[in-house]
Design goal:
Number of domains: 2
CATH topology of the largest domain: Metallo-beta-lactamase, Chain A
Structural class: alpha/beta
CATH superfamily of the largest domain: Ribonuclease Z/Hydroxyacylglutathione hydrolase-like
CATH class of the largest domain: Alpha Beta
Helix content: 25-40%
Radius of gyration: 24 Å
Bound molecules: MU-OXO-diiron
Strand content: 15-25%
Shape: elongated
Largest sheet: 6 strands, mixed
């Protein structure tokens, strides 16, 4: 599929993908591994595809170009979802130089245990392809140390690697062809929340740098999902917004429960919040029954969260521990939090949750809600009051 007259999309749409990063990240809309072939006087291939599709990729590439005519293979990011076909391509494209960042060499050698004779590039380096040239822009930790982008003059395409991507499979490669933009932007947000958010501060700086370069970007060709050519400024602005302690007027409550006590607590606290902040969106998730990547997306967009678990063997339930561990990895800032949970004889639960929340960068509410056994009417009233006080602590503004 042509992106422009000289640039062909050579990727693979993975309609079946439902889990990514092993089993860690949910991808309900599938994904794509985007690779690009640039045909100028020189021939360049930018990135490849995940290994299960390597042979199919090579066969498709051969239909476009003799592999020994390829001058450059550019690896913007060596994570195997993009470099899976590199071993075959590197062996068969005998005249190609492999260009990557210095950290890319380490990742490629680390994964494939081969030295194909790499040429390292750094920010500002350029290569001429004939009428057009490629300028490299390193983007370390967005989201791996090796990540880089490159800008193609003439067609004005920014090949952005994982940045601005989404796990969204579609035959219609371009954003202006997508009818349901709401889902597209939700997938972009989910991608950001789960993958890019830990590196938000670096993202802000990189976007400022990109803007200062004044590149006349007409197309952002991502490594996953849809290519941006209509909403270029919108997705850049969204990334800037998401990278700056992002929060919507939302409080997310995440709990697990054994005999419904902690569930009743979650619902009563939510009623309390809604009673004094009607505009605030309150969402409740049972972490044992919900998808963690979805929860992370909701936590990311929230101004505050409440995490609840009953005490279990003097600890907390598995699903609560798992979601707390994921939340910790996001390095979120500027959000508030509190804990709650039922117990029989030891309220160790809230202490453990509070420690996690504090170590994860949340501003902790001074109180936790603890209920012994099952909450009765009196306890339900107290939990609603707790919800009101928490809402006041959080404040009505975002
Ligand atoms: Fe899509 Fe970080 O690989």
């Amino acid at each position: 599929m042509k992106i422009t007259e000289n640039v062909i999309w050579m990727g693979k749409i993975d309609w079946e993908l439902r889990k990514f990063h092993g089993k860690q990240l949910s991808t309900y809309k599938g994904s794509s591994y985007n690779s690009y072939l640039i045909k100028d006087e020189k021939i360049a291939v930018i990135d490849t595809v995940w290994k299960p599709f390597a042979e199919e990729f090579i066969e498709n590439l051969k239909k476009q170009i003799k592999l020994d005519k390829i001058d450059y293979i550019i690896v913007t990011h060596a994570e195997p979802d993009h470099s899976g076909a590199l071993p075959i391509l590197a062996e068969q494209a005998k005249n190609a130089k492999i260009l990557c960042s210095a950290n890319g060499v380490k990742s490629i050698k680390g994964y494939y245990h081969k030295d194909w004779g790499f040429q390292t590039v750094k920010s500002g380096d350029k290569i001429s392809l004939g009428k057009s040239e490629l300028t490299f822009i390193e983007a370390p930790m967005l989201h791996w140390p090796d990540t880089m982008m490159c800008f193609l003059s003439g067609d004005n395409i920014l090949f952005s690697s994982d940045v601005f991507g989404q796990h969204y499979a579609s035959f219609d490669l371009f954003d202006d062809k997508i009818e349901d933009k709401e889902i597209l932007y939700y997938e972009a947000l989910k991608y950001f929340a789960n993958i890019i958010a830990p590196f938000a501060k670096k993202t802000v700086k990189k976007i400022e740098e990109l803007k200062s370069l004044n590149l006349p970007i007409s197309i952002i060709a991502t490594a996953h999902g849809i290519i941006w050519r209509e909403d270029i400024n919108t997705i850049i602005d969204k990334y800037f917004e998401w990278s700056n302690d992002y929060k919507e007027n939302q409080i997310t409550i995440v709990y697990d429960t054994m005999y419904d006590s902690t569930r009743k607590m979650a619902e009563s606290i939510a009623e309390g919040i809604k009673s004094i902040d009607k505009d605030c969106i309150v969402k409740i998730f049972n972490s044992a029954r919900s998808d963690n990547s979805d929860i992370i997306t909701e936590v990311f967009r929230s101004k505050a969260i409440l995490i609840g678990s009953p005490t279990y063997n003097n600890g907390i339930l598995n699903s609560t521990a798992a979601i707390l561990e994921e939340i910790k990895g996001l390095s979120l800032e500027g959000k508030k939090a509190a804990s709650f949970g039922s117990y029989g004889w030891s309220p160790a639960n809230v202490k453990i949750i509070n420690e996690f929340l504090q170590n994860s960068g949340f501003e902790l509410f001074e109180e936790s809600a603890k209920t012994q056994w099952l909450p009765d009417e009196n306890e339900i009233r107290k939990l609603r009051e707790f919800g009101k006080k928490f809402a006041e602590f959080v404040g009505k503004k975002q």
